[in-house]
Amino acid sequence: MSSPAKPPAEKITTPPPTNPKKKPFSSPNEMVTFIVGTGDKQETFQVHKQIACEHSEVWNRAFNSPFIEGKTQTYRIEDTGPEVFRLLTQWVYREKFDCIHLGDLDASHGDDLDSMGQCIKEDGILLSLWVLAEKFLIHRLQNYTMHIICKKGTACRQICPSYYGYVYENTVEGSALRRFVVEQSCWAAQPFVNELTNSPVEMLRDIVTVLKAQLPANVRARKRSQMTEENYLVEEYPATES
């Protein structure tokens, strides 16, 4: 992998002061560079190497390896956007990040179009952040992100179905994020119109599995006993229009 070109200086994001609760830096002036995104949406972030390596074993191995990342102390991430990585950098320094819908809105704002637009955009960023944290094995960030997703649900209702495909394309079977969107879809108080038509086939299977598991045995037995052949016969001599 060749060394990437450096974006314009005005797009370089510098880190905030270190959290005083963290252990002292062994090399406070040692920085690593992350080049995030592609094209005109690309940004460069500089992070203290110790902070990056302490939070991600993937980064620790990369920046201390004989490969290009170790030689250049630069890591390129093309499959996410700067707005997502910005939250990640906030979290590795502060163990929290800025979020629009935390206390700013309540359930009464759920039908406001501007608020809904903000909610949908932020949902996409948070889902991408969870996926990014999984990629780099930052499990505490995954859990913090899930905490934020759940907390903002009062204002934003459920995850927009347009993101279901992204979740299933970027996670594996049994993923906690998959389980969340499936169960939220099952038990949503106000389901989205045409929600199921936007759901991946795998998700529909998971929804059916979850719903079937909620049926008590006596209900299953009663419904099974009601399955008589008369319910499934076809018209042998259908009437024809005259």
Automatic annotation (TrEMBL):
It holds the Pfam family BTB. Residues 1-28 are annotated as: Disordered. Residues 30-101 form the BTB domain. Coiled coil: none annotated. Gene3D superfamilies: Potassium Channel Kv1.1, Chain A. This is BTB domain-containing protein. It comes from Botryotinia convoluta.
